[in-house]
Specification:
Two copies of one chain form a homodimer. By secondary structure, chain A is mostly helical. Chain A has a domain of 101 residues: Arc Repressor Mutant, subunit A. Helix content of chain A is 66%, strand content 7%. A three-stranded antiparallel sheet of chain A has the order 1-3-2. In chain A, helix 2 packs across helix 6. The termini of chain A are far apart. Chains A and B meet through helix 1, helix 2, helix 6 and helix 7 of A and helix 1, helix 2, helix 4, helix 6 and helix 7 of B. The first copy, chain A, binds a DNA duplex (30 and 30 nucleotides) through helix 3 and helix 5.
DNA sequence: GGATTATCGTACGGATCCGAACGATCCGGC
DNA sequence: GCCGGATCGTTCGGATCCGTACGATAATCC
């Protein structure tokens, strides 16, 4: 990763452009690192684990959610996978076409659609997930245990802060 | 945000599916929170700041990079914005169509394309970025100052860990 | 019990998003 | 000089990704 601009260079360049407006550089920096970290981890997991199984990130996440919560209704799957209902429709179409997932109407409430893994989908997850988690573990293991738990807690607070609810 | 499954419930359900394989729940949890936090912050900034200016997340990031580093070559812009060259091509096409950005060939090396903001693009950034940073600040301000600097450092280490380089 | 209201999943349009392949250009050795 | 190899930005195909609008179905009100 060559040729990066230094943090100081960037701040100086920003000040040249924004003038004397008071900016919160610490906040900008923390969130910049947040996105970089998420992208880096996602890329690494995609390249080292998912690609060889011809699986996309979102496809894997959806499969994982349905694996753990068999028969879950689509809107809850979307919420758990952190994607919109519209996106889920397309992803499920792809996974259904590959025979990994099945859609199933609800008897009582005919608006609902429940999702289940096929046996092929289940086998895939039983093979992939341990591998996936091993790479997760490898990445996180480079942090001291105490820092991991601090990170986890702080990130949860960031979620709450961003969603505008100051939890009690 | 109703109807969430508890962390304990999820772990129990996972154990039911993965059997006796040894999983690193702490790592899975930390990274799950990482993606949730990134998505939540991105959504909040998009909804509260960018949408009213008809600007996408990636479009804004690219515009910001070019604003700070005027005349930067496209591959460096892509790297700074954390997107692929192919994606940048499409985003620049959109921004160019709206008169925000201009492409400019390099005299010396005719393979290169340099990017600059138009005056309209510059005005937009001068108007949007302070607003954007204010919301960033509002989110981060809900964390104690010490936690912010710890978070920033830890996230940088996560980036290095994911990219496979244990920096000295 | 009929009309209004709310909620469900989906179709649609448009904007990312990326890996792979590609032509254009530059650079290296010779 | 020149030619094989490296590097540049773009194109292409296919998969997300989302807000909005919609038809179908439930729940509510009176």
């Amino acid at each position: 990763m060559p040729d990066h601009h230094t943090l100081e260079e960037t701040e100086r360049a920003m000040k040249d452009h924004v003038g004397n407006l008071p900016l919160d550089f610490a906040a900008a920096n923390a969130l910049s690192n947040l996105f970089r970290a998420a992208n880096a981890v996602r890329s690494e997991l995609t390249n080292r684990v998912l690609r060889k199984h011809d699986m996309t990130w979102t496809g894997f996440v959806v499969l994982w959610v349905v694996w753990i919560w068999d028969g879950m209704e689509t809107r809850h799957v979307a919420e758990s996978a952190d994607i919109s209902k519209a996106t889920l429709t397309g992803v499920v179409r792809t996974l259904e076409g590959r025979g990994m997932i099945a859609r199933e109407g609800d008897e009582k409430d005919r608006r609902l659609v429940r999702l289940r893994l096929t046996s092929e989908g289940t086998e895939l997850m039983e093979r992939i997930y341990p591998e996936f988690n091993a790479v997760e573990s490898e990445i996180i293991s480079q942090l001291a245990e105490r820092r991991v738990s601090t990170l986890t807690k702080t990130l949860r607070d960031v979620v709450n802060a961003a969603e505008g609810q100051n939890s009690p």
